[in-house]
Amino acid sequence: MDGMRIPGLLTDPDDIRVNLNLELILAHAGGSYATASPEEMRDYALGVWMAYSGGALTATEAISKARRYALSVGLPIAADTGG
Fold this sequence. Notes:
Elements: H1 22-28, H2 38-53, H3 59-72
């Protein structure tokens, strides 16, 4: 599966380059995230990256944490079903 760099996610050229797999994000968001604006998608993706890059969480835990945050701020994604 191909990843997609989200424009504006990281602006400093010295930052780690982050390629986010939109298929993975959409799968974990139950598909409804497709209705989000580019800004909402960028914020959600940044939350996933921040949670995962700390190293304390697995990818699944990071995505779950980011999804809960996204829900708390009203982003249009499916409710977390656990995991």
